[in-house]
Each structure stands twice: as C-alpha cells, then as structure tokens.
Design a protein that fits this description.
- It is a single chain.
- With 99 residues, the protein is an alpha+beta fold.
- It has one domain: 3-Layer(aba) Sandwich (Rossmann fold).
- The chain is 40% helix and 22% strand.
- The chain has a three-stranded antiparallel beta sheet, sandwiched between helices.
- α1 (2-11) packs across α2.
- The longest helix has 18 residues, at 81-98.
- The chain is globular and about 45 Å long.
Length: 99
C-alpha cells in the first residue's frame, strides 16, 4: 500500500488532493501510513460516510459508516467548498442508492 501511495503522490499536481475510502477496521493504520507518505501537515480531513441508511444490523454495534481520508500533496491546497460539497453530496447519493 505504501508503494501505491507514493506513486499516487507523484502523479498529483502540487495543488492536488487524494481521497482514500477505508472502513473503520483499517482507518487508523491508513492515517499513520498517509502521514508518513504525504506528511502530517498535508492532512486535510477525515470524512465519515454513511454506507447503510438502515442503521443497526443484528450485531451489537452498527457498522454503517466508512471513512474518506483526504491529503494534499503540498500546502498549496485551495478548496472551493461549493464544488467540494456538490461532489460529496453526489458521492453520498451514489452510495446510498447502491446499498
């Protein structure tokens, strides 16, 4: 995984951002790995994402979320929040329609 992230970083523009989807089992490990590859200062955000509208399953704890980790290549990041919110809304609609 580290090699793939290093290659992805090389392909990003200087103002580029990478989003990686991961479940809660591996989220903490991926954050540490991405800190190592991109640098702790390039962390943008950790976005929780609802994957099941129904909520609790038969298990003791509901597993209805996963996460999007966002890192920038450099500190030259400039987010247009309107575009970003539109993309996240479309992403959520797509996920909720497929579950």
């Amino acid at each position: 995984m580290k090699n793939r992230l290093e290659v992805a970083k090389e392909f990003l523009r200087d103002d580029g951002v990478i989003f990686v989807s991961i479940d809660d089992n591996e989220q903490a490990y991926l954050k540490v790995l991405m800190d190592e590859v991109f640098g702790r200062g390039e962390f943008v955000a950790l976005f929780p994402r609802i994957t099941k509208k129904a909520g609790k399953t038969t298990e003791l704890v509901a597993k209805n979320t996963d996460y999007l980790l966002a890192f920038s290549k450099t500190n030259q990041l400039s987010l247009n929040m309107n575009v970003f919110e539109d993309a996240m809304t479309a992403f959520h609609k797509d996920v909720l329609q497929t579950t």
